[in-house]
Design goal:
Layout (H helix, E strand, L loop, with lengths): L1 E6 L3 E7 L5 E8 L5 H19 L4 E6 L2 E2 L6 E2 L11 H9 L4 E4 H12 L7 E7 L3 E7 L2 E3 L35 H5 L1 H12 L5 H7 L4 H25 L3 E5 L8 H9 L11 E4 L6 H7 L4
Amino acid sequence: MRIGIDLGGSKTEIAVLDDAGTELLRRRVATPVGDYAATLTLIATLINDAERELKTTGSVGIGTPGAPSPATGLMRNSNSVCLNYQPLLQDLQRTLGREVRLANDADCFALSEATDGAAAGAASVFGVIIGTGVGGGIVINGRLIHGPNAIAGEWGHNPLPWPQDDERPGAACYCGKRGCIETFLSGPGLSRDYAQQHQASVNAQEIVTRSLREAPAEHALIRYEDRLARALASVINVLDPEVIVLGGGLSNMERLYKNIPAQWGKWVFSDTVFTRLVRNTHGDSSGVRGAAQLWT
């Protein structure tokens, strides 16, 4: 039995899978925002309650925003700021009394979709999160790649490639740089682009809805698609994956799966692009399933 926890900023989800990947249990509860100690207690309670209900123990994998530093073991780069600079992995192992595996939430998404999702069977997979933030994960031959610095797949904090003059220097990013891919391709980035062009504050979902009847919203999505095509082309030039899987709220735009491959060829250093761009299979469940599959 494999237990997965998806520790999000507003919700925490637990799922329990058997050896065949069949879901035995799932629950979702509110995350205690800004309270590290309460977060540890919540995770332990969810796991203990699930094991008591199923009358057996299981391996535990945790998907988190951010990841532990290889140098210090302390969490970093988490938008759930109460986790930053905390020994989350060590505290969880002490609290639960067993070994725990922990990975970035985008890594868990990529692993889930590569294992039994939209990219199942592919030798090389790049999993993309485009939502509140922008993240990514790499799976090669079924194995999640972390890298020696624990940042494999973090394409969101590279600069937007082949920038146009009006895209320089780009918006400030929370990482301290300007013009990161995340500042253009996240939901807030799309909203900011629309506001800059049309002096109106509208969230990303509303922009998508308005695009069906309003030219300024459609133009914002055209700019978004051009930027996403460039950003993914730069990934293809480095990794050359068989499949790129999109997740996160903006991945629900069906138009992306036609429009992006139609554009990225002009930026890819090849006369052919056989890489497939696909929508995720497991949706919001990919993160928690991938966390459980850290023990596969």
